[in-house]
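Justification of resources, computational component.

The compute hours requested in this renewal are based largely on the per-chain cost of generating structure records like the one below. Each record pairs the submitted sequence with a full structure-token output. That output is archived, and it is also reused by downstream analysis tasks.
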Amino acid sequence: MGFDPRTLWDVVALVGVVLAIAPWFGRYLGRIYMDRPLVGDTILTPIERGIYRLLGTSPRHSMRAREYMLAVLVVNGGLLGFLFLFFLWQALLPGDPTGAPGMRWDLAFHSASSLVTNTDFTHFTNESQLSLASLTVAWPAALFVSPATGLAVAAAMVRGFVRRDGTLGNFYVDLVRSVTRLLLPLSILFALVMVLLGVPETFTAYVIAHPLTGGTQTIYLGPVASYQSISLLGTNGGGFYSANMASPLANPSAVSNLFGVFVMMLIPFGAPFAFATMVRRHGEAWPYMITIVIVFSVALGLFIAYQAATNPFLSGVAGLGAQTNGYPVGQEVRFSLPESSLFQVTSVYSNVGANNLQIGSISPVAQLVLLFGMFTQATPGGEGTGFGMLLLFGVLAIFVGGLMVGRTPEYLGKKIGTGHVRWAALALLVHPAAILLPTAVAFLGGFVSLAGLSTGAGAHVFTSVLYEFTSESANNGSALSTAQFNDTTLFFNLSGAVVMLIGRFVPIWVMLKVGERFAGQEALPPGPGTLRTTSMTYSLYLTVFVVIVTALIFLPVMALGPLAQIVGGP
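The structure output for this chain reads:
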């Protein structure tokens, strides 16, 4: 692997294709949740009606925030219990040709919480600690339900801007349509493409290979293509293999790597246009899209630049100084630096969490770039909830901007009051609290030791622990490094599970409450004091607002971690 400037054109071309498709795809996404006529209605509508009858609900029944949240908790709580018991007893269940043992209760709880919350942060090794049934039955159920939940909640929140009766829609209907109209057909299509690109798709558990060097090698197989397809599409991120998308079986070529980036980008980049379609104001998509593109582009540029720059801390090592260019350790030789960087930045900023390189060995600035994407959770963020967080940023930005210029804080004809602001602020503050409190307890409680480490090494361990809790709170799932601390202990399993559950369901409750408040208001016509939210000025203001608010919240802890690494060494 190296820095080949020609492959920058691959990066530019792929991003250009996604941005060209996003408006069209976003309109389709919006029509799903507006219950407008779509291709496939003849086949899918009767199936959906049958599912609604089984669930005992009706599309005509619209829920308020409390009932909608209760339905979210019932479905996801049931899935949590199912996964916990499945992992706990997987050795007793059929479908275990590899002989994987049952998980400890704390590991099973962490694993189940991770999958339900769309995080897929694993404290286990897939090949040796998961049965084939867990990989093909239990885990895939969460791969569909968790992203469908996020999409449903975002759709409910958006409805608040156009409704006046205080209701937000029906969660069960939104969940079912997310699966039947979006996740299931696209995951099947993308799995077929992955098979054509060389990704395995079989129910054979493993084969025994005989390398030229002698001996034998066990190569684990399974329905890898279908698994990776929904994992990337649904911003789940958990890999069929522990190496995730760095495995040559899951990601065999540069073409499959770029296709994986396309799959990850499709829904998050289409979300602003889905919002504009649902509120019937197409210009409202652009401020959010511009914010996403600016932050994402700067992050990608910084990541590539600092990965390509010579590592200054190796320049004095005899025999290495003249040969060391960049941070090549842990990076895949199948992909160029721009291609690999595009995948990793897209994965983290879209809250997918899939890895195609060892991010514990990247430069401190690149680590800081990835952390910042999880701090915002909104550029573009995860499936549905990422755009919901960006909308909350927008509500706060309009409120502050309106007060600064003496205009009425209102959005889409509905006034923004202190109630909206309090709820939005809660979503922004619970994220750092869920990160900083367990990080402090981990060090002060002696669960992680910095004794005897230099400034740089100590900062790296601190960054690793900070990254773990940030990834769990943001429902991301990527991990920096656990080489110098053990995260499979009782403390990290239980604290991580609680952080993931808080980081998932508290913001969801906030989004529903903000949507309900808007849904209970009458829309007013724009007046001379209304802030124009479709202008380039507002777009840039929103971008600056997101960056500054995020930086102010997390700057102190960044100074202890990645910034200290930059000063003190790798």
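DSSP finds 18 helices and four strands in the chain. The chain has a mean pLDDT of 90.
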